[in-house]
Structure formats: C-alpha cells, structure tokens
Recover the amino acids of this structure.
C-alpha cells in the first residue's frame, strides 16, 4: 500500500479532487447542501479500492477542514479499516482538537494502520491527555505502531514517557534507534542522558547522539562526558569530544587540547575540529599553539581539521604555517589552508594567495578568489582580473563575481573585454552582475549594448536590463533628493 505521506505529492490527486468536488457540486444542484454533500461523498470515497481516489479524498477533506471533522469522527467507526485509517490521518492533518477523544478510542483498533494513524494524529494535535494511552502502545506487537507512538510522545514532550521510551531504545528496534533517540531529545528530560550517552560508542549513531545531547543543559552532561574521554573505545572518545561542539563550555578546552595527543586519529581529528568553536580570547589562548602543533600530525585529516579551526578562531600566529601548506601535495589541505587564510582576513596573506594562483587544481584557484573577497584587500584585484581568462569556467565565473564585490573600478574595462569572447552562459551572467555592482558610465553603456544584442543569451540580456532599471531608478532618486 502506498505510504500516506505520499498523498500530498501525488500528481494525479488534484485532478481527482476536482472530479470529486464537481460531483459534490452536482449534488448541491439537486437541492442538497453542497458542502455537506461533498463531505459525505468524499468520506465515502475513503474506502475506494483505487488508492488514487481514496488518497485524493483525504486531500480534499483536509482542504475543507473543520466542516469535515464530524463526518470523519463518525468514519472512525466504519466497518472498513481503510476508511478508519484514512479518517484518523485526515483528522490529524486538519488539526481540530475536537477529534482527540475519538482518536484515543481507536488506539485499540484491530487494524495496525488505524492505530498508527491515530497515534500520529494525536501527536500532531498536541493531545496531552493521550500520553498514557500512547505509552501503553509502546508494548504494541506492531513495530510501526510502536515507532509512531514514540514519535508522537516525543512531540508531546511529556516526561512520563522518558523511561518507557528508554526501554524501547534498549529493545529490538536497531534500525529505528535514531528515531527513538530523537524522541528523547525532544522531551529533553535529564533522565534520558545516561541512555543517550551509552550510544556514543555506536559508529553510525554516535555522531547524531552527540548533537542530541546538545539539547540538555551543560551542567547535566559535562561531568559524564568528561569521564567518557577516558573510555578504552576510540569511537566513544571521539563522539564524547563531539558533544562539546554543541556544549561550548569553556571548561572543556583543556580536555580538548589534551585529546589532540590521543592515540586514535579519529579522536585527534574531532578534538582539532571542535576547538574551532571556542573563539573567546581566553579560550583561543589555550588552543592556538596546540592547534598549530597539530599541523605536524601524521594524519592528513587531523591536519585539515586543525587548519579549519585555526581559520575559525582567526589565528594570525598560524599564517606562516598555513602559507607552507599552500604547497602541500594534499589537495584538500591546500584548499583548507586557503579557506582558513580568508577567514583570518589578514592582508598579510594576500601575497601568499597570489603566488598560489599557479596551482593546477581549479578548486584551489576558486577558493583563493573567495578568500580574496573575504580579506577585501584591493591588491588582489589585478590577480582576479587575470582569472577572467582562466581555463576553467567555474574559476572565471567566481572571479567575475568577486570583482563585483570588491568594487574596484579598474575591473570594468577587463570585464567588458571578457564579454567579447566569453561563451559560457553562467560566466557571462556573472560578468554582467559584476558590471552592475561596479556601475559607472562605461559599465552602464556596456550593459545597454547587451540588452540590445538579440544574439545574447536570454537570461543574460534580461539580467542586464533589470540591472539598468535598478541603476536608473537609483539615479532618479538621487536627482529627486537633491532638487
């Protein structure tokens, strides 16, 4: 059976709805209340054997909203389980709390799909009175019903559900552990912390659980996570370190610095990465030199993480070391070093980056342009102009955009010249936008020529026209304000 959540993406649903609505209108023409007749017909159609029809009926009833609620509540007692199931789902989508008691009553329906959809709807309706019945459903024999109950209890955020959900998490639902753990995160009760911490050793789930622990107060998790840094399991240690990405407690910095010397590369990498989120002066004073030392790590991924963090904490002390990495054989390290120099934003790095434009990798050259823009030093303009002739169109496109952002009028003529030979549509569009940002009589005249060139790409010509309108509008406004 097609999943009900596919209902709203069904391409044929709207056509079917129109047909059903037209049928309802015809009934109205025979003297019946059009809306009442339409609701009755649509509710009856919930049981249609053609799922396109039954699902389209749900869509239409949800669209009708509150006037359909009473009919749908009655449908919860229909002999056909498909009708009961779809009615339960529709009531949740409509969102009228009048349906809560009736939905609770069908939680013991013999059909698992009815129980599942009723459970979903009670969560959607925020029905606090359904918490105890939903907890009972955690013992249901059907896995789909149990997991639906877990999700709804998470949405209701009632602490009474914590221990029962923890029991489910420790049960036989291996593939659904993320969903169950997420419900505990939503509830946010500290009694779930130990259960979640026990999952940090899971290679697949551990990183997600680390982020979930960010929903709890730092004082509730700090001491317990610190203890896990001494675990014999490297996965547990790495994910325990990752918790501090979300709990940026300054007291964690010395522990994270210590983990830079851990025997497991994955732990060192996580420690190097996480330290980049501690940006206060007293924090960076402790981490800057250890991160610079980590640039000598034997593992490229640890180096890359350290480079990224040095960029995020804007370490000027690391600039000479990052400059050395611009010649590294590892492409990812070169790109990371370029990005870090851009984040640090010191003009001292511009000369290093200009020299690095000889790099054969286009991704490195592209990242250099981003860093030039982030640093904002106009001594990079000539080098960016030279990139308008780069062999890779992506680099040319980014260079054009960057020249527009830097705002140096020296770029106008080279951009116009580049437009004479450039053939890539997206690059031409970037050059046009750059001219618009730079402005001036020469740029305006060039844009005007493009708007009249019928051989120009349509989107480029249109962009040029829109830019001219904006420039002319600004000029008129300036004239009006001074007259």
């Amino acid at each position: 059976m097609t999943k009900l959540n596919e209902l709203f993406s069904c391409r044929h649903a709207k056509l079917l709805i129109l047909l059903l609505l037209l049928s309802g209108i015809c009934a109205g023409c025979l003297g019946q209340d059009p809306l009442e007749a339409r609701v009755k017909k649509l509710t009856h159609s919930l049981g249609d054997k053609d799922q396109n029809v039954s699902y389209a009926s749900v869509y239409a009833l949800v669209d009708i909203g509150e006037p359909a609620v009473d009919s749908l509540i009655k449908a919860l007692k229909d002999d056909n389980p498909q009708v009961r199931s779809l009615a339960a789902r529709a009531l949740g989508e409509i969102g009228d709390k009048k349906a809560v008691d009736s939905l609770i009553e069908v939680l013991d329906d013999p059909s698992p799909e009815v129980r599942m959809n009723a459970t979903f709807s009670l969560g959607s309706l925020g029905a606090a009175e359904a918490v105890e019945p939903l907890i009972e459903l955690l013992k249901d024999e059907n896995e789909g019903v149990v997991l639906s109950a877990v999700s709804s209890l998470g949405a209701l955020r009632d602490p009474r559900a914590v221990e029962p959900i923890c029991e489910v998490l420790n049960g036989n639902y291996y593939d659904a552990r993320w969903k169950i753990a997420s419900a505990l995160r939503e509830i946010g009760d500290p009694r779930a912390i130990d259960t979640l911490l026990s999952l940090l050793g899971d290679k697949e789930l551990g990183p997600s659980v680390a982020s979930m622990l960010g929903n709890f107060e730092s004082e509730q998790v700090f001491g317990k996570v610190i203890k896990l840094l001494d675990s014999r399991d490297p996965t547990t240690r790495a994910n325990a370190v990752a918790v501090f990405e979300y709990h940026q407690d300054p007291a964690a910095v010395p522990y994270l610095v210590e983990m830079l010397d851990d025997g497991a590369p994955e732990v060192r990498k996580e420690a190097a990465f996480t330290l980049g989120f501690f940006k206060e002066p007293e924090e960076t004073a402790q981490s800057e030199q250890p991160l610079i030392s980590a640039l000598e790590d034997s593992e490229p991924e640890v180096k890359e993480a350290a480079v990224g963090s040095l960029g995020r904490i804007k370490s000027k002390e690391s600039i000479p070391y990052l400059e050395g990495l611009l010649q590294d054989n590892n492409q990812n390290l070169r790109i990371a070093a370029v990005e870090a120099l851009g984040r640090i934003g010191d003009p001292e790095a511009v000369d290093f980056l200009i020299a690095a434009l000889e790099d054969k990798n286009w991704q490195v050259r592209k990242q250099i342009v981003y860093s030039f823009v982030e640093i904002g030093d106009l001594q990079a303009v000539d080098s960016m102009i030279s990139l308008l002739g780069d062999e890779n169109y992506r680099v040319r496109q980014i260079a054009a955009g960057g020249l527009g952002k830097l705002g140096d009028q020296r770029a106008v003529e080279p951009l116009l010249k580049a437009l004479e030979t450039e053939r890539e549509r997206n690059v031409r569009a970037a050059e046009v936008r750059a001219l618009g940002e730079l402005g001036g009589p020469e740029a305006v005249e060039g844009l005007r020529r493009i708007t009249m060139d019928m051989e120009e790409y349509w989107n480029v010509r249109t962009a040029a026209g829109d830019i001219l309108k904006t420039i002319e509008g600004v000029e008129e406004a300036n004239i009006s304000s001074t007259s």
Q: What stands out?
A: The domain at 379-483 is CATH 1.25.10.10 (Leucine-rich Repeat Variant). Confidence is low (pLDDT under 50) at residues 7-11.
